[in-house]
Amino acid sequence: MRFLFITLISYLLLIISPHSYAKDPYIIGLDADLSAVAKDGGIAIQRGAQIAIEEINAQGGVLGRPLKLVSKDHRGNPARGKHNIKAFAATPNLIAILGGVHTPVVLQELELINQYKIPFLIPWAAGTPIIDNGFEPNYVFRLSIRDEQAGSVLVKEAKAEGHQKVALLLEQTGWGRSNQDSILKASLEQGINVTHVSWFNWRQKSMKNELTRIKESGATAIMLVANAPEGATIVKEILKSPEFKALTVYSHWGIASGQFTESFKPEELLTVNLSVLQTYSFITPTNPLLNNKVLRSYAKKFDKSVTAESIISAPGVAHSYDLIHLLAAAVELGNSVESANIQTSLENIKSFKGLVKEYKPPFSPANHDALMSHDYFMAKYNESGFLVPKTHEEK
Amino acid sequence: MSMALLVSVVLFVSFFLFIQDQVNNKHRAQLEQIEKIAVNNIDNITVQVENLAKNDLIINSLIDYEQRESYLSVFFQSLKITDSSDIAIGFLNFNAEPIVVKNWTLFEINSDAFSWKPEVFEQGKTNVDVTKQGILIAAPVMYGDMAEGAIVVYVKSLQDVISYSSSLGVQVLVNDEYEVMFSSQPEQLPVGTYISEKKLSGTFSVKSDGRWWRAFSVESLTTAYQDVLQLFVMVFFLLMVVIFATNYSARISAKIASQALKALRDSISEASKGRSPINQPVSKREPSEVVAIKASVNFLLHDLLSTSLSRDRFESVIDSMSEPLLVLDHNFNAVLQNKSMTNFAKEYRVSMPDDINLIFPQETWQDLAAHNKVEIDYSMYGTLTVKPLILEWLLNKYISDGQEIGYVLVASDLTKQKDLLFELKMKNKAIDEASTAIIISDMLNGDQPIVYANRAFFRLTGYDSEEVMGQNCRFLQGPKTSPVKVDLMRKAISNRESLEITLINYRKDKTPFSNSLTLSPIVNDAGLVTHYIGFLHDVTELQRAASYLKQAKNKAVQSAQMKSEFLASMSHEIRTPMNGVIGTLSLMLNEELGEQQREYATVAKDSAQSLLSLINDILDFSKIEAGKLGIEKHELDIESLTRSVYRAFKSEAEAKKLTFNIDLSGVKEAFLIGDGGRLRQVMNNIIGNALKFTTEGEVSVAVETESSNSDGIVICTWHVTDTGIGIKKSRLKSIFESFTQADSSTTREFGGTGLGLSISKQLCQLMGGDITIQSDLGKGSTFSFSAQLGLSDNAHNILFTKLEEPKPFERVNMRALLVEDNMINQMVAKKMLSESGVEIEVAINGAKALERLIANTDKEFDVIFMDCHMPILDGYDATQAIRNGDGGNQYLDIPIIAMTANAMKGDKEKCFAAGMDDYMSKPIDLSLLQNLLTKWQHKIKPE
């Protein structure tokens, strides 16, 4: 039902768009968690894509045809994801798929992507194997955190804040596992002691045991790799005990992808030493003009009251915005919507002025990840419950 | 019986229904049970499936593709949902494609039978399907609000899920098409069987709807109802017993009840006929209700009787009155009268209204009208009768419906009452005016007050009525009143006895008087003493007289006593010298004497003898007066005795030329017991008198004996008839008085003391007889004297015979000791004894006698003649001493003969008591002495 609805809406949007052509639009498929645990992220991606598509269409589309976004909801379920990819593959005029949130879903979709040879653009999924997937040619292009890079940032931050002993609290998925590798590696490199590694399951209700073991292990900081529900559970558990509150939590961006802050009173969050890995904040834009333009479009399309601070899952929005523009650019560059062409063209873009940053280049044949560790930063929740970059003030 | 049958049918039906219900319930219970078990089991599986679907690991594994392979399949392979092997377990993804499965082919074969996907994946709800094809339980694996996957469990057969053992019949669970999905007895009803109506016919089946099925519990009719049959038989039997028992007891109680009721009915009909109130319970078995009914009917009858009296009943009531009842109307017509009135009318020949004036004389009307009653004494008016008749009439109004329509008159007959009253008045007057003082005390109230005192009492005591009435009579007592007597009185009164007592009472003026009081209790009909009557006599004078007399009597007794003592001593003192005189004179006359000497001696002796006789008479008289004369008892021959006296007087009679006869023909019993001496004395007196007072004619003596009523008593009567001077009739009585003779001149003419007859009379009286006289003055007299004599059985009386025959005396040969203090007596006795052949030694008193006896151990004496009155040791004591052996052992049994001047009553006994063997009185009579000697000679030396 929902798919139908979304499809209909998208179709209507396309019809009533001022620049609707007689020609059939090119379809960009969106496969994201639009209703489940990471729906904030999913919606953010969708919205970013939609703003970008609107702008492109306002410019005449690509190759004279408009772009259209078709969204599918994988609900975080890899099975669904796969199902969606299959469905997209059968969709005519599909030029690329925008996917993400979560890494596990994306990982399961990789086979099909490779099979169908569809350009797979990832605005939000950090699992390293997503890009390092072993497929040649690699149709997967990411503008997101790469776990491999994430680990070192988290560890660096921890070390910078004086923690010698850290514990890992990871979700029992591919994502969790990929982070384990990177954090351990980073810890080793940076001379930090990983005292304990704890795993948890999705929807796990109690994290007490894990936290206890972490505390007992002597760690003073937690490297958290969790999505919003589990993150909330963990932080709730931490809030219950002063013992746990002593622990500093350095979290991957997963918890910001969904209903996290809603579980707490803003003042509660402030009592926890929690910092979250982020890539972009509208508060500290790289390109202020573009930043504001996007904000305005966002406000007009989606939420009148939106602010740079309050925009939900800012990275998602920004990443997908940039990815769509990059795609369009690639199509224009290659003058083709053929998958192979798009793939090559993406690799060949020399430079691009995106929202997140100015990419020089975004991708290369050797590197399909557009963002690296130097692009990441830690953010903290403010009294309003919004993430703000933890830059100068906290240091 | 039909009742029983009906009852049993009803019972059977109800029992059958009951059993049916029971069986039904049992089956139902089983169905419930099986339902519970089945549902439980399925729910159990469902829960397991749901739990599994909720498991984090499962949820996680949906996301975590890579790693899940490693644990999921292992986990699922190890999963055991039920014990069955025919079970498929699958973990499916969102489009029902298996992720991990176990035994999945089993499910895939049958998967078409189930539509579960929409419910599970779209609605996110657990789906449970139970069909013929098996059980499918599918639970969604929820991630957020949507089902991202499902856990599916498929069991091929319901049979595998339910383990149930039925206790009764077969339980099956069937689907909508009535095909068996589960059977508790698969052999009987296998799975897949179609349960049709046909199949259920001939069975007992219960149906119920279950969660996913219909349930049947089936049992063959026979097994279902076999209990019924068994029970039925038992119940039927019991029922029969009960029916019979109740029938029987019902009949019995019906019988009792009907009997009781019949009795009751009879009683009621009896009672209603007016015969009697209903009788009380006939038997104990009469039900209490019947008794109650009887009581009620009794009450009813009683009420009927009392409230609705019919005329004849009314009449019987009034007829039961003894008083005449007369109801008159205003015209004096008799409206109603009772039987008594009718009788009255008949008796006095009156009828109303004509004779109204006869019954109610005019004079009485005023009283009657004024006081509603009047007392009429008909003898006054002479109307009805001349006999005494007094009636009191009471008048009442005769009222009917509030109207006074006549008079009701009732008469009480006061006649008798009046009579009694008059008699009472009379008697009261008698008592009141009696000379004896009478008081009546009330014993029941208070202090036993005096309720009546007559005039004599007031006269006697000096009190008046107010002072006496209500007081207890103890006010009569005073200081000299003997407390003992008072106590006796009190005791008698408290015991409600009568009493006669004399005690000192006091008059009002405090003067004492001797009151002879008689107390008499009055007892009422109940036996209770209500009053005491006291009769008071002033016996002061009497008492005085009595005490005076007593004193006099005492004096007299005293004097008599003195007299007899005097006599006793006198007797001895007088006799002793007399003895001497007569004795010596007798001795002298035995000597050779000259004519003149003999004449003088004879005259002297006769004078002395006369004097002695006189003295004897006087002594006898005094003895009799003093009561000291004793009547002896010894063997008598009346004929001999009388002849002896006759012979003694014969010469005197011949001298006077009188015919002297003796007639002993009247003697039936000659041998008697009595006092011969006294009889002789009387005979001497009477015959002597007869001869003395007869100058010519004859004197005859006749004796007769008569047995009296008492045993062994013979009344002997002598009749001495003479033709003498006779006795004046007026002197007949006084002739026996002392010192009188028939004529004061008799003494002068005939001599004599005048004591003779008096003594004789007294002697006869002492002997139980008397003397009577028949006399004609100048013609002659017959003196009859009698005595009561004992009957002797000893006809052979040697002494007596001896006394009779003038056998010449033979001299005896004895040695005797004579103990006698008086010289004269000594001399006389010695002379007499030695003349009779006795060798005499003399001791002057008892002591000397003892000395003499004990001097020798030889028996020197054969007999002792002992005087009684001696100084130092008198005869009695001496005798006793000898008997004790103080005279020596040889003399222990020596005959001791008393010689004493005492001839008083008791002297003889005294001698014998002392130990003497015989007795002789002084002065000594020679012939008597000789007889005695002869007797003892024989005793000492029997021949």
From TrEMBL, chain A:
Keywords: Signal. InterPro entries: BCAA_transport, Leu-bd, Peripla_BP_I. Residues 28-384 form the Leucine-binding protein domain. This is ABC transporter substrate-binding protein. Belongs to the leucine-binding protein family. The keyword Lipoprotein does not apply. Pfam families: Peripla_BP_6. It comes from the Bacteria. It comes from Psychrosphaera haliotis.
